[in-house]
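User: tokens in, sequence out, please.
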């Protein structure tokens, strides 16, 4: 499972992580509340992480570093999540697929259990 979270309202924070068998295997997070922002990682992020991080650092420096007024590192967790699963929520179009049960997997229709009055007056066919 790959998860992603962003806060782009007041504090510009973003995070992406992956878990397997209920255990986190990697996490990449950007925190804007630290001076100049801070990008943190743990575990074993996808191999694309290093090139994504390097490109964002290069763009940040070209824009003027910490005083640029833009945080290119904010996008790093989002791009790492996209590298891991092929989807980025604010770039890729939404595509939903309606799942339907196939006829072969459908359970036979169940007969409703008789109500209380039917059971009381013998309409329950042996059920009490």
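Assistant: Sequence out:
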């Amino acid at each position: 499972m790959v998860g992603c979270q962003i806060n782009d309202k007041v504090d510009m924070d973003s995070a992406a992580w992956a878990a397997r068998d209920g255990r986190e295997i990697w996490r990449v997070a950007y925190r804007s509340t630290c001076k100049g922002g801070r990008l943190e990682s743990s575990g074993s992020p996808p191999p694309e992480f290093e090139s994504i991080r390097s490109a964002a650092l290069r763009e940040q420096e070209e824009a003027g570093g910490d005083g640029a007024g833009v945080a290119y590192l904010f996008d790093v967790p989002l791009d790492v999540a996209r590298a891991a699963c092929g989807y980025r929520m604010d770039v890729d179009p939404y595509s939903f697929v309606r799942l339907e049960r196939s006829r072969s997997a459908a359970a036979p229709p169940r007969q409703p259990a008789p109500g209380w009055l039917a059971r009381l007056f013998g309409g329950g066919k042996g059920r009490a």
